Amino acid sequence: MSVHTEPDVAPVPPLGLRRDGLDPDPRVTALREHDGTCPVTTLAGHRAELVAGFHDARTVHGDPAFRFETVPPPPGITDELTAAEMHRRRSGMLLAIDPPDHTRLRRMLTGRFTVRAMKALEPRVAAIVADALTAMADGGPPADLVADFALPVPSLVICELLGVPYADRGGFQERAERTLRSDLTPAKRSQVIRASREYMATLVERARRDPGDDLIGMLVREHGDRPAAEGGIDGEELAGLANLLLIAGHETTSNVIALGALELLTDPDQMALLRAAVSDPDPAPLTRAVEELLRHVSPVSAGFPRVASRDVVVGTHEIRAGTMVTASLCAANRDSALASGDLDHLDLSREPLPHVAFGYGIHHCLGAPLARIELRIAFSALLDRFPGLALAVDPAELEFRRDALIHGVEALPVTW
Question: Does CATH place domain 15-415 in 1.10.630.10?
Answer without folding.
Answer: yes
